[in-house]
Amino acid sequence: MRAFAELLDRLSLTASRNAKLTLLRDHFTNAPDPDRGWALASLTGDLTFHAAKPAFIRKAVEARMDPVLFGWSYDYVGDLAETVALVWPARPGANREPELSEVVDALRSASRSEVQRLIETWLDALDPTGRWALLKLMTGGLRVGVSARLAKQAVADLRPVPVSEVEEIWHALRPPYEDLFAWLEGRSERPTADAPGRFRPVMLAQAIDEEVDFGKLAPNDYAAEWKWDGIRVQAVNEGGVRRLYTRTGDDISRTFPDVIEALEFEGAIDGELLVLREGAIAPFADLQQRLNRKSVNDKLLATYPAGIRAYDLLADGGEDTRVLPFARRRARLEDFVARLRTSRIDLSPLQPFESWSELAELRRQPPVGDAQIAEGLMLKRWDSVYEAGRPKGPWFKWKRDPFLVDAVLMYAQRGHGKRSSFYSDYTFGVWTEGVDGARMLTPVGKAYFGFTDEELKLLDKYVRDHTVDRYGPVRAVRADVRHGLVLEVAFEGLQRSTRHKSGVAMRFPRINRIRWDKPAGEADELAALERMLERMEAR
Amino acid sequence: MIRPESLLCPKPEGLYCAPGDFFVDPVRPVTRAVITHGHSDHARAGHGVVIATPETLAIMEERYGRDFAGSVQALGYGESISRDGVEVTLVPAGHVLGSAQAVVRWKGLTMVVSGDYKRRRDPTCPPFEPVPCDVFISEATFGLPVFRHPDDRHEIAKLLRSIEQFPERAHMIGAYALGKAQRVIRLLREAGWEKTIYVHGALERLNRLYEAHGVALGPLAPATTGAKQDFAGEIIIAPPSALADRWSRRFPDPVAAFASGWMQVRARARQRGVELPLVISDHADWDELTATIDELRPGELWITHGREEALLRWAELHDVPARALALVGYEDEIED
Q1: How confident is the model at residue B334 (pLDDT cuts 50, 70, 90)?
Q2: Engineering a disulfide at B274: which of A35, A57, B258, B283 sits with its beta carbon 3.0 to 4.6 angstroms away?
Q3: What is the pLDDT of residue A535?
């Protein structure tokens, strides 16, 4: 338990991805089986307990100390698990510290009342970090900034193998993953991936470099289709096992019962999850209403009906079609979708073209319909097999040019980790009219990337030299009609928002260019963003 | 029985002894001052006469120059002076080099002004000495049950393990310039770290002063010379404010560590961008505060500064008459 607790403790304050990977790798290398497997399961979200409920913890601690002092402590710390971990009266020597596997075994099998008694004896024996880790583990939400994919990446690094190899077999594995570690340490064969309903690691596209790539590519080697603005999913039905996975292999079946119900086929398709109304795509904001929900109700299902726009076929009946060239897979997919009797799964149409210039024109001015809100185009080589990872050459994404707006820097916040000595998170605003008729800035977004390291140094200096106020880690920067720094902000889309005072929210905003030359008074007006939004909605 | 308030009472300048005509740790210039220790919020320049341990006087001279007071009177641990029937004795407080409790006796009444103190071992100063008293005047910087400082050796082990895990990065430890920095260096030496430790310029004079008082710090070097990569795998000690300062950019991808009792609370660490919190404090934690009161069982407990409400509550539950003095001008351990 101690090693696991120290791992979580370090992870919770580590910002850099590489440093997190180092911490995880070290743990998976040094911790014994089955402890490390349980640690992995807790990080990938494959470990949940039902017998342990957090509510009794507060009662247990208040039985041990003055409730008034506990209340003040909780007010100060702000997090229940952390407060209890710190204030729990230690009884050193009372018990032995439990191993992680003992804790997991007991939480999985013991009855609720037994579990409560056990937890109290463990809390007596552990140090504050151990108590904190135990309470986090018990209540499920570790929240230490590690995604399931990052944990899998760290495991894959042990051998090393590409993370897709771990993802491919993941759904056939069960915690504590002793067979997985045995394979990665070269002690046994790779575990089999033949579990029905398993996830297949996805094929990803390279971003196209217009200057270089088009000169080398022949238009008739490639098929083009629209790049839809939803989330990439894999829908599987094998022998009655139905699953819906994200592109990193997270199982989201429970969130989308409507889609699961529609998987009346035997095979696996690759496609885009969208909110579809009468065959038309709804904006991404509608899909967001359905994402990351633990429970769904009928109203939500009716208001935001989800479906899949299919663009590839990975398995057909019992046959693995990934070895076929795209042209063959595409023909099979068209037949496959045509046989389905559901409106929830449709086909992503190909966009015929003769030359790159013709395609460029289509990208600039998409035809009427769903293509108007597509993110851009996908290019797929007709002869390419379906290959996990991001191979260079067979698939390209060619995103629509971003929207641009000139905004004024208003606030800057210190970054994290490597950037903690820099003001690297920028809030920017556009002009609007105040109640008194004077022009004033209203914040419309926040961006913390898009600039080079050199530009970051200059921005940091600008913030320090033009600070007019400070609020903790945030500095307000001088910004009025005559003084201020104009940032050209690029973004992928706009949504209406009630949470932002300006009423609009940007998708993926980033700093495209620093307009050192442009007077602040000439930055854009909020009305310009509102017009963009109206055009998007008028599709 | 004499009322304790006639011996010591709070005034805007600080705690005042009327029969002896002196203040303890006054925050403004006064005629006569007894100074418990050298931290700048307790030891200020500009008093007429300063009475303190020789170490504290040396620290004040180092910080403020030779003319920091009209005149000084050095009082070693266990030594006393008397004036108008009031006797003042200085005994170790275990906080930093030279730190003392002021034991004030008058007409059979004993009051102890502890100043800042801690109860655990510190390789840079003698341990706190409990003195039976009628009134114990305590700090309460970490006066909440959430503050339970772990064994400092455990924290140093955490640091050394991180250096093994990240040999390509520098480890930069924020530590208060007086006391904490030297204690961390001594703890590192005791844990077997024999390499040169790199220090920020702001620590150099106090490091020399500690060495002159017999606290051996081992090989130290300024952190300002050398190429970026030379600091990979090395330890750098700097004032906390330097952690997120532009100064830190000279080191390779530094792991920001901070040696402070506040690091017990994760949100405080996160707020300051600390990646490796080291819970090492020169103040008594909750258990030390309450154990000290329990041990002394004073007739009355007075609380000078910090989180007094929780300690008052504890005293009430344990039948110790207590009051908060709400003295202003003393800072938390954190400086920024």
Answers
A1: very low
A2: B258
A3: 78
For the segment B204-233, the average pLDDT, to the nearest whole number, is: 95
Q: Is B11 left (phi over 0), alpha (psi -120 to 50) or beta?
A: beta
In this predicted model, what pLDDT tens digit does every residue of A294-344 receive, in sequence order? 788 999 999 999 999 999 999 999 899 999 999 999 999 999 999 999 999
Answer yes or no: is pLDDT of B121 > 70.
yes
Amino acid occupying residue B188: L
- At the second CATH level, the architecture of B4-146+283-324 is 4-Layer Sandwich (3.60)
Least confident of A294-298, A425-429, B10-14: A294-298
CA distance B75 to B81: 8
Tokens 């210190």 found at = A414
Q: Which amino acid appears at position A267 of this protein?
A: G
The whole-chain average pLDDT of chain A stands at 92
Partners of residue A12 in chain B, C-beta under 8 Å: 266
- pLDDT the model gives residue B273: 87
Per-residue pLDDT of A372-400, as tens digits, reads 889 999 999 999 999 988 888 899 999 98
Secondary structure (3-state) at A411? strand
Q: With contact defined as beta carbons under 8 Å apart, do A296 and A257 qualify?
A: yes
Query: Which domains does chain A carry?
Result: 2-139 (1.10.3260.10), 206-397 (3.30.470.30), 403-537 (2.40.50.140)
CB contact under 8 A, B310 and A416: no
Break chain B into its structural domains and give their ranges: 4-146+283-324, 152-278
What pLDDT does B335 receive? 43
Option in B146, B150, B275 nearest A14 (CB): B275
B267 secondary structure, DSSP code: H
CB contact under 8 A, A13 and B275: yes
Which pTM value belongs to this model?
Answer: 0.80
Mutate to test the interface with B, among A69, A80, A84 (most CBs of B within 10 A): A69
Chain center to CA of A417: 20
Listed by number, the residues of chain A in 67-86 with a beta carbon closer than 8 Å to a beta carbon of chain B are: 68-70, 72-73, 76-79, 82-83, 86
Q: Please count the CA atoms within 13 angstroms of the CA of B308 that sit on its side-chain side.
A: 15
Q: Is the domain B152-278 a CATH 3.40.50.12650 member?
A: yes
Q: What residue in A sits closest to B251 (Cα-Cα)?
A: A418
Minimal C-alpha gap between B44 and chain A (Å): 28
CA distance B245 to chain A (A): 5
Calculate the CA dihedral of residues B138, B140, B145, B150 and round it to 10 degrees. Answer: -90
Task: Work out the mean pLDDT of chain B and round it to a whole number.
Answer: 94
Give the pLDDT confidence of A226-244 residue by residue, as tens digits. Answer: 999 999 999 999 999 999 9
Residue B221 identity: A
CA distances, A400 to each of A293, A364, A390, A507, B287 (Å) = 30, 7, 20, 14, 62
Distance from CA of A13 to the nearest CA of B (A): 5
**Tokens 């119900």 appear where?**
A261
CB contact under 8 A, A69 and B310: yes
Asked if B244 and A421 come within 8 Å (Cβ–Cβ), the reply is yes
Residues on chain B touching A29 (C-beta within 8 angstroms): none
CB spacing of B273 vs A22 below 8 angstroms: no
Yes or no, beta carbons of A77 and B146 under 8 Å apart: yes
First to last CA, chain B: 45
Residue B48 has pLDDT above 90, yes or no: yes
**Best residue of A7, A8, A13 to probe chain B, by most B CBs closer than 10 Å:** A13
Judged by DSSP in three states, A181 sits in: helix
Q: CB neighbours of A222 closer than 8 A, spacing ≥ 6?
A: A379, A380, A381, A382, A396
pLDDT of residue A336: 97
Interface membership of B151 toward A (CB under 8 Å): no
Q: Is the pLDDT of residue B331 over 80?
A: no
B145/A65 touch (CB, cutoff 8 Å), yes or no: yes
